[in-house]
Amino acid sequence: MQIKVNRNYFWANTFLDQLAEYGVKYACVSPGSRSTPLTYALSQNKKIKTYVIIDERSSGFFALGLAKQTNTPVIVVTTSGTAAAELYPSIIEAYQNRVPLIICTADRPAYLRNSGANQTINQDNLYKNHIRFFYDTGLPILESNQIQILKTNAINAYNISLKNNRGPVHINFPFEKPLEPSSFTDVIEEKIITNSLPQVDSITLYKNENGLSKKDFNIISSSLKKEKFVLITVGPGNFSDKFLSELEIFSTKFSIPIFADSSSGLGFKLQKLQNLISNFDALIRYDSLNTFFSPKINFHFGRTVTSTKLEEFLANAGAKRFVINPFGDMFDSSRKSKVIKINEIDFLNSFKKINFTPDDKSLAMLTRLKEIDENIEKIKSSIILNSKTLNEPSILTEVLNSIPPNSNLMMGNSVPIRDLDFFSSAIRKNINVFQNRGASGIDGITSTALGIASNSKNPTYLVTGDLSFYYDLNSLLIAKQFNIPLITILINNNGGAIFKFLPIAEHKDILKKYFLTPTNLSFKKITEAFDIDYSELKKQQDIVNHIKVSSVRKKPVIFEIKTSSDYSLNIRKKYWKKVNKFLENFLRNYEV
């Protein structure tokens, strides 16, 4: 039997059916003509839920958030030309943060490149510096062997993005007209239809076979027994409860303090880490700390930490550093660390059977660090929470205290993520912290949060700054279009306050003209233009009242809080100064 088909639609449908068979459940599509075969195929696929998002840049970041929340690859479809280029910021973030995306760009045929053809650019490996896998399908050829190659590459794309080399992959689809499925181009045999059916997932899970080598095991074991002062650092990452359990066993067995970046979420889990030092960032700002605590070994898990002070502290201590992750990524800008390519849990398990008795000095140091941490916590409460004027650190504290257990918390970059690191306290709420710390840009923050909230049964909160919010205003249409109940806390200090933390702040005229960039926008009017609920919160109690009741909302809302960046900076400086004074007195007569 012979069947009439449109070769472009048949080709696109074969590829997407194969992805659906392997478990892809979500796709983000931006409208375009050349991508019609891909879009139509998705519209007919009952296994894949599709979000139609007008702006490609927002679509990429929305898919990023959706992939973070579901821990599955998300398809992103665009038409040809600059539409494909608009995805690049989200692809960079996905690459740096190892988030699985399957980027499907429609394209003109290769023979039209450099011919002046409309909406035609060179899309051959367009994202080559920030992609884990690239495949150009070529123009559709409806032959059994070519169809098998297409399906094989769909499987490769899925496995690489999620498991083998986790991150974004790029599939480029050149199509010739006609693009619509009802415009038949070929008559094919039934056998071709049968060959196009998806292969069943063999469910062979990828396992990193790189265990801890005997040489590394011996070096680390010897060092653990020899060195008195060791430190565990944990950067941003998506860590399982099993990892927390193994980290607790490891750190308590060897009496090792833990300095964990707040965006790692370790301080907000239900399970308590006995050796977690929550206020490490304030502690390491004390210039003479290395005379008291100077770790000679550092085990690092997760991405690079937010705190530049911690990086400086470890460099000054001359610590021998081990970066542990399953993909062998280097998360040390000095590039002096030994990278161990191993699953973090397997690494921690490797040392369970070592006979070890903690040194008295290391036990005493750990006790002293915990005591210091408790005192810094009291200083923080006395300055931050007792401030009568609303300020950025107190906002962060009130938000953490007010959101319900099991909430999602997406942190914007620049000042909000740093304040989370500076001022958050350990809190047993099982808060799931999300961040875009791969490339740490301020673009796409709201879109990412909407992607997280779109598929979560738990309330999702976004804490963001006014410039990040401005950069991603197009995302508000997504919130309205899909009625996503994202709760946004918009901290508006009218632009660029992060630069007041930096040395350029000493050059006040240059700072004001070129760096602070106040927008003076009415976010109330902008938000209401998208028909999204808005409230301005003016007092600490307003934050508590609104955040607590917002978790049951069924639609999006923006809570704007206007702050003085100068007053907030003074609060931070007052806190750090008081901590330094306390440490000076506390450690004056202490000998290691």
CATH fold name of the largest domain: Rossmann fold
Main sheet, how many strands, which sense, barrel? 6 strands, parallel
CATH class of the largest domain reads: Alpha Beta
Helix content: 40-55%
Query: Rough shape?
Result: globular
Distance between the termini: 86 Å
Report the strand count: 19
Walkthrough of the structure:
The longest helix has 26 residues. The strands form four sheets. Strands 3-2-4-5-7-6 form a six-stranded parallel sheet, sandwiched between helices. A six-stranded parallel sheet has the order 15-14-16-17-19-18, with helices on both faces. The protein has a five-stranded parallel sheet with strand order 10-9-11-12-13, with helices on one face. It has 592 residues and is an alpha/beta fold. Helix 9 links the parallel strand 9 and strand 10. It is globular and about 90 Å long.
List the SSEs and their pairings.
Blueprint: E1 2-5, H1 7-22, E2 26-29, H2 36-43, E3 49-52, H3 56-70, E4 74-78, H4 82-85, H5 88-97, E5 101-107, E6 133-136, H6 144-164, E7 169-174, E8 186-189, H7 190-196, H8 214-226, E9 230-234, H9 241-253, E10 258-260, H10 280-283, E11 297-301, H11 308-317, E12 320-325, E13 338-341, H12 344-349, H13 360-385, H14 392-402, E14 408-411, H15 415-423, E15 432-435, H16 445-454, E16 460-465, H17 466-471, H18 475-482, E17 486-492, H19 508-515, H20 523-529, E18 533-536, H21 540-550, E19 557-562, H22 565-587
Parallel strand pairs: 2-3, 2-4, 4-5, 5-7, 6-7, 9-10, 9-11, 11-12, 12-13, 14-15, 14-16, 16-17, 17-19, 18-19
Antiparallel strand pairs: 1-8
